[in-house]
Amino acid sequence: MKPEALLHPTEKGLYCPPGDFHIDPVRPVDRALITHGHADHARAGHAHVMATRETLDIMAIRYGEDFAGATQEAAYGEVVTINGVTVSWHPAGHVLGSAQVAVEKDGMRIVASGDYKRRPDPTCTGFDVVPCDVFITEATFGLPVFTHPDDAGEVGRLMESLKRFPERAHLVGAYALGKAQRVIALIRQAGYTETIFIHGAMEKLCTYYGDRGIDLGPLAPATIEKGAKDQFAGKVIVGPPSAFADRWARRFPDPVACFASGWMRVRQRARQRGVELPLIISDHSDWDELTQTIRDTGASEVWVTHGREEALVRWCELHQIRARPLNLVGYEDEAE
Ligand SMILES: [Zn+2]
């Protein structure tokens, strides 16, 4: 069997003809297998959705309980058969509930990894290497220049800044699903025990992480009481990046603008966004993690999607691994 007969891109997303299902479809389909809750992968309106408990819950939080006609929960390690195709679910280490989907038929196994990272994350289960014939990898940071530093060091710089500027509010921009909770958990690991203030847009997701046993410490809404502008002096406030451009951010005293993203490796991006303290913290693999993972899977063929495909395809070819870009449309790096 040719791998393309088992899984290939269509305008709705990756499709498995023998199993008659899509993985992370960008348009409504009958049967969708969803790797994780970020909006570009998890969309509302499918007739049937299979995903991990956490991804289903996150979709319900974001889109409402009726986000799909029917849902089916998949656990890590679980193996199911869909129309004669074997499907199994494995942790991807990207955000809470994120999964790789392994699809297998007639001795051919393809792993669709969704978004993934290899380094430890206190808010989700770590990535599992799944040996396969074809590995489908993201390439958000698919250039050798992208090397993410140690995340404890990045949070350490935030802690330093809090000491140096005790009169200034520290506004940390972080995407609402995954990054925000990870940054908060990393701040706790650094020994910070004070209340962390959060933007209303991330309240429900932070509460949900707490419900799933991920301790984020004391959190409170970042609402300013009348005439009490100084209440945020020296405090940490976490909000979605979009909130930083609007009036919300201007309420805080002389804020230090921080942004937690893999893109902060690019100084020009930090400057353009007016970020004073860039924190290079990514939920995607850097170049070394991508190439190491390709090696680890033992795949003889690699399909590269959403991001900088060319460099990774070239790297594979240099290492005698067949590779091609997979032209899937509709995936943005929402989580970065
Ligand atoms: Zn993602």
> What ligands does this structure carry?
zinc ion
Which residue ranges are poorly predicted, with pLDDT under 50 across at least 5 consecutive positions? Answer: none
Radius of gyration: 20 Å
- How much helical structure, as a percent, in the residues? 10-25%
Secondary-structure-based class equals alpha/beta
Strand content: 25-35%
Shape: globular
What's the arrangement of strands in the largest beta sheet? 7-8-9-10-11-18-19
Give me the count of strands.
Answer: 19
Number of separate helices = 8
**Mean of pLDDT:** 94
What characterizes the major β-sheet?
Answer: 7 strands, mixed
Intertermini distance: 37 Å
Q: Would you list the SSEs in sequence order as H and E?
A: HEEEEEHEEEEEEHEHEHEEEHEHEHE
Summarize the structure.
The protein is of the alpha/beta class and 336 residues long. It is built from 8 helices and 19 strands. The model has no long low-confidence stretch (mean pLDDT 94).
Describe how the helices and strands are arranged:
Layout: H1 3-6, E1 8-10, E2 13-16, E3 21-23, E4 31-33, E5 46-52, H2 53-63, E6 68-74, E7 79-82, E8 85-91, E9 99-105, E10 108-112, E11 134-139, H3 151-164, E12 170-173, H4 179-189, E13 196-198, H5 203-211, E14 219-221, E15 236-239, E16 256-260, H6 267-272, E17 277-279, H7 287-297, E18 301-307, H8 309-318, E19 322-325
Parallel strand pairs: 3-4, 4-5, 5-6, 10-11, 11-18, 12-15, 12-16, 13-14, 13-15, 16-17, 18-19
Antiparallel strand pairs: 1-2, 2-3, 7-8, 8-9, 9-10
Helix pairs in contact: 3-4
The chain binds zinc ion (ZN).
